[in-house]
């Protein structure tokens, strides 16, 4: 049998390995090999003590063949379990080694990004060899007592027996292990808001063979501090079929929860910022209306619906009359107020289903959804009159301004550019006719003017 790599260890490591050998505890170091995407592909055995070699029949020579040699057809499952252990906290797994035909309780602790420290406790001979079973049980209990988690093992049938509640019980809860002697005792330190959930899970765990669960809840330490824990529980039948056994591992995940909450808060902030950026990208900063790009997208959607025979719509292009004169006579602040006033007028006087946008400069556009040219012409005329009769207020003074509009009804085969060109032509026809009017080009091709 080939020896382990004891020569390369420090004196302290050799001493620890010797102690584990005397206890009959197998110890090894595994390397998790991942691909470029971070997915675990292999697990290699880097180092092990004499007990590891003796109990598993494996030496460091197996290297990258460790999974296949140790677990045979179960190698894929073992890879997933060991990869999970490498990414998280300490884990306790049960494994059957085909190389030695033995069962082991496998304690895995990540020591760095791609390393796992593994301790194997041979549990195969617990019932067949009482002396060996007692030694192994003592070693196992010593090992369990030093776990950075709480381990619970109970027999539920044929007669309820609590075997132990061990590990970092006092460190995690502030109470002694007796507080985990029964589900009722444990419930006393569960946070009141979570007791119903934990009680329901405990009842299912005891009553349902093969039950396997993972539950997050809060406990209240003896000093009053609230901590988050995660409980891994399972119900199984002993190998000889005579006992129903419940085992659980309880891990403190308070820090992980805090990090998750911070991450969620950061994600929420990012989402809010993305929504704000999206809104800014589609919105005119001065008036709060849609901008030209957003209106073009809306027009394209309406044109697609029109091409499928699913509705009609009309478009009104608005241009403020003599807006340059407003800026020249009263200043750009007054001009901005007139633009905002027109935006407010559109939003207050039109239907919620109509879409308004600042097309550019002093030009605005209104999309009348589901509306014929004739109906849109009537609404546009009322809108023009209302705006003329309700001037903007600038420094407590009224600043009357009018607008001219070009109205067109969309036709099958139209594009956004074609719609804009016809509306623009109608608008400038109105400008040339004296401004402060609506000129509509109907679907029949006729032109209608409302002054």
Report on the architecture of this protein.
41% of the residues lie in helices and 29% in strands. With 451 residues, the protein is α+β, with helices and mostly antiparallel strands. The protein folds into 3 domains: 1-146, PAS domain (Beta-Lactamase), CATH 3.30.450; 147-270, PAS domain (Beta-Lactamase, 2-Layer Sandwich); 282-450, Alpha-Beta Plaits (2-Layer Sandwich). A 6-stranded mixed sheet has the order 12-13-11-16-17-18, with helices on both faces. The protein is elongated, with a radius of gyration of 38 Å. The model has no long low-confidence stretch (mean pLDDT 85).
- Derived from helix and strand composition plus strand pairing, the structural class reads alpha+beta
Q: Quick one: overall form?
A: elongated
Query: What's the CATH architecture of the largest domain?
Result: 2-Layer Sandwich
| Low-pLDDT segments | none
Largest sheet: 6 strands, mixed
> In the residues, how many domains can be counted?
3
What oligomeric state do the depicted chains represent? single chain
Looking at this structure, what is the CATH superfamily of the largest domain?
Reverse transcriptase/Diguanylate cyclase domain
CATH topology of the largest domain: Alpha-Beta Plaits
Roughly what is the average pLDDT, rounded to an integer?
85
Which sequence of strands runs across the widest sheet?
12-13-11-16-17-18
With helices defined by DSSP (H or I, 4 residues minimum), what is the helix count? Answer: 14
Helical residues, percent: 40-55%
Range of strand content: 25-35%
Global Rg: 38 Å
Total beta strands: 18
CATH class group of the largest domain = Alpha Beta
Instruction: Determine the N-to-C terminus distance.
Output: 106 Å
